[in-house]
Amino acid sequence: MHSNDAMLVGVLAEVAYRREELQKAGRSVWVDRARRVTKRARAHRAEVRVPVQQRREAGQVPARSGEITR
Q: What are the start and end residues of every segment in region (Disordered) (predicted)?
């Protein structure tokens, strides 16, 4: 009968640990989303102009490693 109690305590400890880890993971996802939204709002308020991204064609010369492509 005592071994069942020890088993139950072990299982409950594992469940508590996994629940805590899942909550941490869920929080980090929520925090990342909130940061992205905040960044967008700040950029919009500051009226930052972002140049349109250009697609490189297959025939174009590739960028050199020391060259800044902006």
A: 46-70
